[in-house]
Amino acid sequence: MAGVSAVYDRDGEHIGWKVSVRKKGFPPQFKTFRTKAEALAWASVVESEMVRGVWRDRAASESTTLKECLDRYAADVLPTRKDGGWREASFLRRWQERPIADRYMAGIRGQDVAIAIRDMEAEKKKPNTIRLHLALLSNLFTVARKEWGMEALDNPVESVRKPKLPQGRDRRLVGDEENRLLDACSKINPELAAIVRMAIETGMRQGEIMGMKWSMVNLSARTVTLPDTKNGTRRTVPLSSRAVAVLEALPRNLNGRVWTYTQDRLKAIYRTAVARAGITGLTFHDLRHEATSRLFEKGFNPMEVSAITGHKTLQMLKRYTYLRAEDLAKRMG
């Protein structure tokens, strides 16, 4: 049953209408509106939903701003991330600075998110960066709905058009680039050449290679077991004969790590090696592309390649795999 009463300010001036809905089996609902018609319309909708059994409590989502939820997400969710949530934290701070952060959760619509997307595009953010911002916002709405008592909340991110990702990179080693790169790396530090060779032979990510410890390596079985990968799963990577030879030639560090380089140091010195080799446009991640493509060229099927590289789907493999047409032609006979 709904009840409507006038609302007055301290000076006795009428400023709106407060409506209450009370129905057995449901918590009382209260809301204030500018006009009596709006109050009665809201009450009618709430009562109808209660009768039909589709009512969801909107009190929390109608009284909590996005900024407040972002603060809670930072406190409750980010610390549970494998990396401590440091990357998501930067996206979270950007959302807190946008006008949408002052909106109540229940009032955020797809058009509000679309405006934020246009703002990010105007700021020259790359499509993938924008998509990562949207992924955080989408997950926040999911958590709010499932864990924070905002069951009636719709996810506005699901209704907007996401920026289209550019076509995946197709950079592979060409001509004598491999020899030139390895030669330049060897002249800087033989360990750098060993790291590059491991990337080409295994298809492991840079972070996976740099995080290797001798306890993960089984030279007799020719494997490296990665206990915690980017995808959050354990993966055992088979080693080629060349990869085994690289590891066998390395000295053993007292700290148990395979490499003396840190990841940050590697990034800087790799760019130096590429420049000294006279090579342009070759990132370290391109070596993963190269390795993945070579696995296909050796005849491995997609399931086998996925097991080696850790790609989760065939679509992901397509983005990272570029087979040389001339090599495919040879196999066609």
UniProtKB/TrEMBL annotation:
Q: Name one Pfam family in it.
A: Phage_integrase
One biological process term from GO is: DNA integration
Signal peptide range equals none
**Mitochondrion as a keyword?**
no
Q: Which Gene3D superfamilies match?
A: 1.10.150.130, Intergrase catalytic core (1.10.443.10)
Tyr recombinase domain mapped to chain residues: 168-333
Cite the entry's keywords alphabetically: DNA integration, DNA recombination, DNA-binding
Which SUPFAM superfamilies does this one have? DNA breaking-rejoining enzymes
Q: Listed GO molecular functions?
A: DNA binding
PANTHER family with a match to the protein in the record: INTEGRASE_RECOMBINASE HI_1414-RELATED (PTHR30349:SF94), PHAGE INTEGRASE-RELATED (PTHR30349)
Name of the featured protein? Integrase
